[in-house]
Amino acid sequence: MNEYIIKELAIPDAHIEVKPSNEFRFNKESGEVLRLDERGFHYKGQTIDDAGEAYRLFMNWMKNTQEQE
Questions:
Q1: Other C-beta atoms within 10 Å of 34: how many?
Q2: Where would I find the H helices in the chain?
Q3: Torsion angle, CA of 39/45/46/51, rounded to 10 degrees?
Q4: Residue 33 in contact with residue 61, Cβ under 8 Å?
Q5: Which of 4, 24, 30, 55 could form a disulfide with 36 if both were Cys (CB 3.0 to 4.6 A apart)?
Q6: Under a CB-based contact definition with an 8 Å cutoff, are residues 40 and 34 in contact?
């Protein structure tokens, strides 16, 4: 379903259209930290081409996130 009707708005026939994307985003309060998309792995705005480095950064971010909870 790509369309959701907002009944709370006082505007007749108001709706939000949601377009699916092929990406995963991981955010903190400060904004996007990690993104996985068709172009690759992105960490804090930089594309990481090395798979080992991308894995290390992802696991480090996951570990730090769990420790903060």
A1: 19
A2: 51-68
A3: -60
A4: yes
A5: 24
A6: no
Q: 35 Cβ partners below 8 Å, 6+ apart? A: 23, 24, 25, 26, 41, 42
Instruction: Please say whether the beta carbons of 54 and 42 come within 8 A.
Output: no
Polymer length in residues for the chain: 69
* The two three-digit tokens of residue 44, written as one number: 């804090």
Per-residue pLDDT tens digits of the chain, which is 69 residues long: 445 555 555 555 656 667 778 999 988 888 888 999 999 999 999 999 999 999 999 899 888 877 776
Q: Residue 62 has what pLDDT?
A: 86
